[in-house]
Amino acid sequence: MANIPLVLHQEVANYEMQNDRGEWSGASEATNLLCLDKERDALLLIRAPLQDPHGTLSTWTADDHDCCNWSGVTCSNQTGHVTGLDMRFYGLGGEISHSLLNLTYLNHLDLSLNYFHGTIPTIIGSLTRLRYLNLGSNDFNGTIPRSIGSLTELNNLDLSSNSLYGTIPPEFGNLTNLQYLYLNSVGRCRVEKVEWLSHLSQLEVLVMDGVSLSKANHWVDAISSLPKLFDLSLDGCELSQVMYPYSSSFLNSSSSSISFLSLRNNNLTSSMYRWLSPLTTNNLLSLDLSGNMLDGIPKYFGNLCSLEYLGFYNNSAVVKFPDFLNNLFGCTSLTLQMLITRGSQFTGSLSDEIQKFASLESLYLSDNQLNGSISEKLWELPSLETVIISFNNLTVPSTYHLSNISYVKYLDLSSCKVGPRFPKWIQTLKNLTSLDLSNTGISDAIPLEFWDMWPSQLEYLNLSSNNISGKVPDLLSNFAYDSVIDLSSNSFHENKFSGGISFICQIVDGFLSFLDLSHNSLTGQLPDCLWHFDQLEVLNLGHNNLFGRLPPSIGSLIQLQVLYVYDNNFSGELPLSLKNCTSLISLNLGANKFSGNVPVWIGESLTGLYVVILRSNNFFGTIPLQLCQLPNLQVLDLSMNNLHGSIPSCLSNLTSMLHQGGFSQDVYFQTTRGYATRAGRYVDHALIEWQGDEREFLNTLKLLKSIDLSSNNLTGQIPNEITNLSDLIALNFSMNTLSGEIPQHIGEMKKLLTLDLSRNNLSGKIPSGMSQMSLLNYLDLSYNHFSGRIPSSTQLQSFPPSTYNGNKGLCGPPLTKKCPGDEESEATSVIGKGEGDGEDTDDEVERWFVIGGGMGFATGFWIACGALLLNRRGRRAFFQFYDSFKDWVYVKVVVFISSFQKARHT
Fold it and tell me: Which stretches does the entry tag as region Disordered (predicted)?
């Protein structure tokens, strides 16, 4: 398929201009003239207030008298005047100096992709020679200055991706030479009257994504009057709120020249097709209606005889797919090359009618509700290269008899019904470079000839989450550059090479970016040949039977971001070379037999780590203080080892556990020839000890903030500094030999959901502040030496008595043991009531009503809270509501009890 420029914004932004005065041409010009002193001085004054952390303006110095050689500066080769400043993506911040006005011949100004803030300076409107102005992707705010409307020479204006607000000034209508206008993602900007648009008779590209048009009722008329407009993008413009006039004159408006039209994310319903018709002429090449509420398409779409791209993904209304295709029958079915409808509500089958789309090259139907069998005719389309139909209820027959050569390169059938037999017809797709058959119900052995079908061309292979058995042969000749191999969660066993997993040494041609062989039955030692994989970003060998040491060549994986070897039999000390893997963000070596000291270089060299899991190994020695130097660390699990010494007080320096928010970096691996984005993101995961059970965290791992040092030989007191970790969710120090008291300020850790200090030698009273830990839903203080009354709170009394077992000195609810003085208080209460008045029964009912109500409230609350535990946005809103609701309930209960008691005594 020809590359369809769905949006031409970036290409247009870099277009070249030149005129007879030697003005901007898009690149530095050779010049024999020195720049003028006045303009050189102006440039130095412009640089002075700027923040330049990367030194991109290092050439701007007073020692160099020819400013035309400075970075980003362009001069006329005829006059020496500065005509262009291109500081795009320079990483600059600060303010824009008024000295810019001294560059009176400036016609090209690009400050995009920087960190400029504040309002857009009104002085820019005085640079009347400007033909190109790009201020996009900065931190500008405030209103768009009306003075920009004075730049009548402009033919390219980009204000996109800022935080601007207010109305678009009608003075923009003065920019009659404007060809390219970008106002997308400008915060809370809006357009109330659109008449000024009709004055821009030279406009070719208009991008207003994110600008509210909710009050612009005549925008279609204004757009239709622009004779040269070919690219229009109005994504997220609140078009569903526009009241459209439906007069016959409107519908008969002049034809538009628009070739690229995008109306995504506007909550539009199918009533919009009436006013859309003037914009959908035979010139239309690309139409994107995604992210709306459309229940289909009209029949006139079948007459869009130039349409090559149709985007209809993430629509929320139910659509019958056969009806959808029927309305495209006509000349459109002969021109359409790319159809994207993923993540919508399509129902029905993928039947033989698909054969009418002879030009179709890319079909994206994933994440719908399609059912039935996939037609054999699909694979016979002569131009089809990409088929992404995963996550449906479709069935793929195993009896295909493909007669014509299929040109399919990218095939994703993930979570469709392909098995139980391995589909041999796949081998007829001789052009495949990417194949995803994960979770397709295959329970069969792979034919050996399968591995020989695509010599040196496979980029992506995912057979995970099946029950595939058999041997993995020499993969040397099958995979191309930047390959991804995922054979996890199957039943592969050792292959024909000696040493079990040594077949990976044969993958030497090209470079691998992702390798997942987890959840198999692989045995043997990991061979020392990993230098082949210096581009590897994800290595997952977890849940196998591999043993021996990690080889020194693992230090060659300088691009590695995730190392997961959990649940094997690896042993010995960690190789020193692992410190070279400085790109690591997740290190999971748990459930093995590693030994030696916890290396100090983990904290010194691997500073990007947010996960460190060394649990269930044989590490000994003390916890290195260098771990406190990991600024991103959110999950630290050193449990079930032989560590001794004290808990470092410097753990309070783990800044990610101090501040709100979760780790944001995703792991993306790429293929050079471009597979669908589903294949490109790795979801990090880990097994974590959670409230007494082992639980696997998947998508939610990056929200977890946890420290687990349990089941070691740690001694000393719990450092008071640990209570500074105000964003910590889980803390487990159980099964050590810790002594002393619980830190008195532990109640300030209000985000804690789980706290386990059991089976230590802790003593003293339970701090009263713990009664304020309203989110706590798992607590274990058992088998210590605590004493005194358990602090009164709905929270602490709601836990079962086993929470406090093995502490002989503790008393008070929920334990049956009464505290000293309780008996006398009860006797006094009984005498004061008098005999026979029944008030003892009433008080008992009242007491259990309050306690039972509190326990019921807490139980119900935590059932709801459990669902919100790892939904950060929902959690924040819910707990804000809960805090105010809790106060309201408390007041109501107190008033009720007071009224009840008064009523009873009257």
Answer: 816-841
